[in-house]
């Protein structure tokens, strides 16, 4: 019996060897760990050979598990071909561990096709921002080429980004990006039979924003810039951009009362430096309620400041201007309380507070001038005013008839001191001169207030 067994073995070995020499697609380094079962057909093909034969002999579509098996077979075929080409380098799994064009050392162009912003968190106290989203990359890898007619597939989904080479990205400051919480995660990798690889990378980045525009509060703009660098294979990677601006995800994005606009990502091409690509986000406040809260008090205090000259008597104007100063001071306190949390981290003064500062100075100047002129009007003089001054006062009082209210003062006894006419016939002339001077100065201060309001509040 032992002699018979030996004879059968000698006959079986050539038969098996002949079956392995059959023509047709051959899978190098097939995943035997994944495909333990062998085909039961007469050809005794392994699963990969069986799937290829099934594709060529039948016209029906493959089921899902058959498609997954075929994709795995295709990947291991490509990995085996790459291992054969680089066998002399003795590099394990070269299709995933070394970049394309490793032998030629030609640059690998990584194109940033699209940026999509999903969420952001702005800290106005520290002037920093965290953004979350994803970006789409594409590059060419000539190791991922296959015959579409043989495999009946023009796309291949890579189920794990560890199976192929992908660029490893980081922030511009690699020594700090881990401390800042920056993170990149490759979520989806696909390739075509022409070797064109696309990847979707989720990112989470943090940076500090430029706060020099805080003087335009509440219309200030935060400018927050980001930059990418390759963390591995720096010497063979270069970046390009598709020229598209930053997009926002319509499903997940929330603006939180901010108008968000992004610049077009640009690459910094310098052969002597590491490849970089940067972009900026501009965040402008869109809080309509905040604008109303800050605009209405300024408008009301400005209008009330313009009203006292219409009341005629200089004494009444002084009291009204003091009331306006109280309103301006309370508004300043309210603004300071509203903006105080943001003032500690900036050297700029917001325009509403700058306007209140100037308005208080103008109002104080107006009150001082009114009190001085009111005091001068009470002094009795025996000499007439300069003739040209009298003529100029008459012209001013005639042009500003609403301000020439001496008759109104006498009728309603608004100022008892001015009712006591001096025995001198020149006292009334002096009063008219001072009233005209007061009207001109108040008109100048009113125009200055209006100009300041238009410049700082619009």
UniProtKB/TrEMBL annotation:
Q: Which InterPro entries match?
A: Neur_chan_lig-bd (IPR006202), Neur_chan_lig-bd_sf (IPR036734), Neur_channel (IPR006201)
Give start-end of the signal peptide. 1-18
| Entry keyword annotation includes Transmembrane | yes
Gene3D superfamilies with a match to the protein in the record? Neurotransmitter-gated ion-channel ligand-binding domain
In this chain the Neurotransmitter-gated ion-channel ligand-binding domain maps to 99-231
Q: Which residues cross the membrane?
A: 294-311, 323-343, 355-374, 436-456
Q: Name one GO cellular component term.
A: membrane
Q: Name one Pfam family in it.
A: Neur_chan_LBD
Q: A Gene Ontology MF term for this entry?
A: extracellular ligand-gated monoatomic ion channel activity
Provide this UniProt record's keywords sorted from A to Z.
Answer: Membrane, Signal, Transmembrane, Transmembrane helix
Official protein name in the record: Neurotransmitter-gated ion-channel ligand-binding domain-containing protein
Q: Which organism is it from?
A: Caenorhabditis angaria
The major lineage groups are: Eukaryota, Metazoa, Ecdysozoa, Nematoda, Chromadorea
